[in-house]
Structure prediction request, 508 residues.
Amino acid sequence: MKEMKEIEILDNKIRELRKVAEDVMVEGAEIEAVKRNTKRILASITMLELNVCDVKEIF
Amino acid sequence: MPKRDIYWNPILETLPIEKLRALQLKKFKRIVEWAYNNSPFYRKLYKDAGLEPGDIKTFNDIKKVPKTDKGMLRDVQSRPPFPYGDILAVPLSEVTEFRQTSGTTGIPVYQADTWQDWEWWAECWSYILYAQGYRDTDRVFIPFGYNIFVAFWAGHYAAEKIGCEVVPGGVLDTEARILKMKELKCNAFMATPTYVLGMADTARKIGIDPVKDLYVKRITCAGEPGASILTTKRRMEDAWGAKVYDHVGATEIGAWSYECTSQPGGLHVNEAFFLVEIEDIETGEIIDEPGKNGKMVITAFDRIGKPCIRFDSKDVIRWADYSCDCGRTFRIADGGIVGRTDDITKVKGVLLAPTAIEEVVRSISELSNDYQVVVSKKGDIDDILLEIELRPGYEDKKEEILNHLKDQLRVRINLGFRVSIHPFGSLPRYEVKAKRFKDLRKLTREEGH
Prediction:
């Protein structure tokens, strides 16, 4: 149960992270430096999702 | 109960089996759907087999999904987009990494990865290195040629991700690498087993004892099966006074397995990131019971640029009948890769795996690390010649050592070998993948066509 709670909290935070990064991507779409750095951030967020969010759905 | 800080991700690495299988099914469906929707090659493959992604509902449905192999990956390369072919599941503009296979078994396969895929490579390697004890206090040396082969590229990025200080040993020669490792007091490095042994020989030649004069505590191997062959692993550990850990990966697949610090006698399969199926070589049935050899069919769940789904790797593996005291629930491939379906060959009617010869040669401490095997035809009869070197100082015991070697070969491999002894240092040395097994019968057959 403790682990489930931990996963839920992390999952919510990671979803927020993705939302913010996607917003930055939209807002900064015409600035190459913003677009490219955000793309890298999104790839890192995907790694968080593979490590945490994917598991949440099977509990 | 093992401490949580031994895992890169305790959530996934200790997931109960039933949850792990549920996760695998979910991820398998997701990658098949991705490939179907984005890769013309996979879409056609599945449509021709009458398969829609929605048809996969249970674990049993997975075997309905057509397999892929290296030949298919080579064939698609003749089609656009250049140079990868229509297996690509992203626009070419999304590809940030090019690598290729070594071409040991034919035309090289070109591998495309997006930045997300590259993050994923480093993530898979982070599981490996963390399980082998790498931490942010380590200074890691990478004696690798940083080139078109993936080899230790991902190890470099993963070590950075873990927080290690990484020293790239790129274009330096072996002596310069050893001196740099000494100067910087590096405490870990990554190399093929052949090169790990070769570096120790070179160090001693320049008056450096790797055990006493260097600071190495752990070594991660790749590229050859040596670190899972007990006699070779011992040689490496003795030569360096360090722990030697194995991992297995491939350019087209990713880094799918790793040995942990418990060294259980096999490799944990990273089952949160890969699906490994073992198929009976004769019947094609899936083998779930331990101890039975079969060929590996593997899926990388999260590689999106050039997906790898039910790939027939030709590697022969078997499930272990033991668990590991590290507490990981990922299953163990007993003894690592125990052979390759395209390496195992019949000599004088006996099935021979080159790793068996390595195991015998490396068990005799008077023999050097280097050897070569040549199989040829003398008339209608197979001839197998083993070329070896004695370590310096053992020349007067030549006959005794030779007889012991021949006995071991007969007992453990059931074959009579011709053996020739060469001066120490005269057989070929290798830096990356050693090519010690030469089957001249194949050459004669191929030339005949």
In short: The two ends of chain B are 61 Å apart (CA to CA). Chain B touches chain A at residues 9, 11-12, 15, 19, 22-23, 26-27, 114-116, 118-120, 123, 272-273, 302 (CB under 8 Å). Chain B has three domains: 12-119+249-340, 133-246, 345-444. Chain B has 13 helices and 20 strands.
